[in-house]
Amino acid sequence: MIEIIVETIQQVIVVKPAGEIDASSAAVVQQKVLPLSVPGCKIILDMSGVAYMSSAGLRMLLSVYRQISGNKGRIVLVGLSEELKDTMSMTGFLDFFTVHDLLEAGLQSFS
Questions:
Q1: What is the pairing mode between strands 3-9 and 12-21?
Q2: Domain of 30?
Q3: In CATH, what number is assigned to the domain containing residue 66?
Q4: Helices 55-70 and 26-33, interaxial angle, to 10°?
């Protein structure tokens, strides 16, 4: 089971999933995030509540990235655990994203 909180801070949409992103929950996260992908959108995916992400979660992130980039928007990841950073680094996924440790730094990256 995954919980997702969506809020807007300083004209930036912040999406906070909490739980594990796996084959069953990746689609739920994607269904929450993709409708937010409007032209010029600014989205932060706060991953601080995500302890585990499977390959399905990585595919979801890539899909979300492509959709947002295609709409001339920006997505920033914050709060990645060391384990998630390592996985994303080894698979080349980190190259697609701007990554910050803290939400505040992510918000500042848009100004």
A1: antiparallel
A2: 3-108
A3: 3.30.750.24
A4: 10
